[in-house]
Amino acid sequence: MYTNYFHLKQAPFSIAPDPRYLFMSERHREALAHLLYGIGSGGGFVLLTGEIGAGKTTVCRCFIEQVPDDCRLAYIFNPKLTVEELLQTICDEFRVDVAPGGGVKAYVDAINAYLLDSHARGHNNVLVIDEAQNLSAQVLEQLRLLTNLETSERKLLQIILIGQPELRAMLARPELEQLAQRVIARYHLGPLSAAETDAYVAHRLAVAGVQGAAPIPSALAPLIHRLTDGVPRRINLLCDRALLGAYVENSREVTAKILRRAAREVFAGDAAAAAGTPRPALRWPFVAGGVLAGAALSAAAWQAVPHSAPPAPVAVKAAAKPAPVAAPADASAQPLALGTQDEALRALGALWGQQLPAGAPCDGAPRLGLRCYQGHGGLYELRLLDRPAIIGLHDGQRLGYAVLTGIDDTSATLTIDGRPHTVSLGALATRLDGEYTTLWKMPRGFRDQVRPGDSGPDVDWIAARLAELDGKHAAPPPGQALDAPTRRLLRAFQVKQNLKADGLAGPRTYMRLNQLSGVAEPRLLAATGK
Known about the structure:
Helicase, Ruva Protein, domain 3, Cathepsin B, Chain A, 4 domains, 7-stranded antiparallel β-sheet, PGBD-like_sf, AAA+_ATPase
């Protein structure tokens, strides 16, 4: 109804799953990283929980698209089944033939035979169960028994349970303790932050084809976050109704008054949400869940890696050159002392062919044509950046730094004091602080943010790169301002690269433009051929 009024191609806040509108926040990326870690760690259960509308299905779909070619995947989305019905469904998903009437034993025997044969062919098998909070205790116990089949290296069936927060409470019951002990990674998907809410709204409007001023101003993001608790589905419901309200009032943009009225209509049964009042009862479990999830992953990852007694500094084995596969840790692995952040920064600068000044390396980097970029995220985020970075590594109460110079499916290469060392991803995950720093080459005349109407060498550089990558339009002449056509190209580029689609060029946009247009910079994945 309001799409033509706002010159949109379609309704931007439909709750129907549409891959074009996929928005992966840092939390969603971390949740995806936990699932991908789980299938590469040798089996057992992986647990993903979150409130209704938090984006669990979005993460699951991304995961399914990224499973390795050697994985056979079974997906169950309606788990209100008896034990026998569940086993029959598993057989159907894995295309295992079972003679009818054989009962539970016939299904279990057929699944075991299939798993052994599949393992002999070099295949892994992953069972994904959505809405897993609906599983009965008897069905969960049967699932545990299915994971008993294993080799000396791994279990032959890996199970991912996705469900609402009560799934965690279920697994805490005494009768399910044995299953809970087999959970090797767990993550509770919390809500978006206020900044992520802003990016989420801008992203969906950009995909829907917004031109010019956005009908939902960025200044409303804190209020949207407050009214929705940062839950994506609630954001969709609220923004959809708010756009309709603006259309009815013949307003070209949503106002705070329209937004609050929309909240009262959409969340009529939720007094706190309609009033924009934070709900502590919802927020505390998110925080606790995030802490516990991180601790669980670290414990699981550490237990999954052969190791001796916990070392003082991070224990890695020295190598003469970076190796694509980590050598197993053993008692001969010698602990190495990590460096300071400034030392690591100067080592990072050397990869860009520059000697950063001592004392304040990032302050001196611009004089060498470089900029520091600091962020927060796990291994998945670093893969997306695809550039060497300084990472903080915990050792008890101490924090040291190393340069992450390479990463593949199973291991990472760290450079410490000029020498490369290889560690498994599982061992690295237990020590990651989450903060990272990297470098990027800046164009001439760079400004921290280029806005509509700006002109100069940095605008010329952006316009030329966008035109080159688009391949359909000639680059505008030098000195031209950042106009509407170039901004449309910039937004389209940002949407395609899963960046904040605000039409304003910032560091992440510059970094991706550098990579795609062939600017000579070191890459994190290049050494592994990824």
